[in-house]
Design a protein that fits this description.
155 residues; alpha/beta; 6-stranded mixed beta sheet; 4-stranded antiparallel beta sheet; globular
Length: 155
């Protein structure tokens, strides 16, 4: 597992991650599209899936999908941000999309926010939860929240 860096202004500086997996590698949210990143991903075996946690963090996922023939995964409620995504998650139930990979709808920040649980151990939460450096604890977004009640309920 790698933190990618190269955060894109198109996704408000969202963090993205790369999961190297024998059945196909995953990109979680999208960094800037850069030749050196494409080369690094190629050296690590390419990208099979691109998990998009919500509509704000799609950045250049379309370019990565085209380059690698990757399947983009997004929730129906945020699909307008990636209308040609290959896999759409619908409803509020968790979905195992591949062995060891579970998409968990967590509406609140956006209607289609999702978290990705990997190996029942690593949770990629997008803007649903994040580390607040000030008090050194988990926090939630306070601005640009689609539905604060649903955010609290999904936590």
């Amino acid at each position: 597992m790698y933190y990618v860096g190269f955060n894109s202004e198109k996704s408000f500086g969202a963090h993205s991650y790369f999961i190297q997996h024998p059945e196909g590698n995953w990109l979680v949210d999208s960094p800037r599209y850069l030749k050196r990143l494409v080369q690094a991903f190629e050296e690590l075996g390419g990208i099979r899936y691109i998990f998009l946690s919500h509509q704000d963090d799609v950045a250049e996922a379309g370019r990565y999908a085209k380059t690698f023939g990757a399947t983009r995964i997004i929730h129906q409620a945020d699909a307008s941000a990636m209308p040609d995504a290959e896999r759409i998650i619908d409803g509020q139930d968790s979905v195992q999309v591949e062995p060891g990979f579970v998409c968990i709808p967590v509406p609140g920040h956006t209607a289609g926010s999702m978290a990705l649980l990997y190996k029942n151990r690593f949770l990629f939460s997008g803007d649903h939860l994040w580390w607040d450096h000030g008090p050194q604890q988990l926090g939630t977004p306070e601005n640009l929240v689609w539905n604060a009640t649903q955010l609290e309920q999904s936590i």
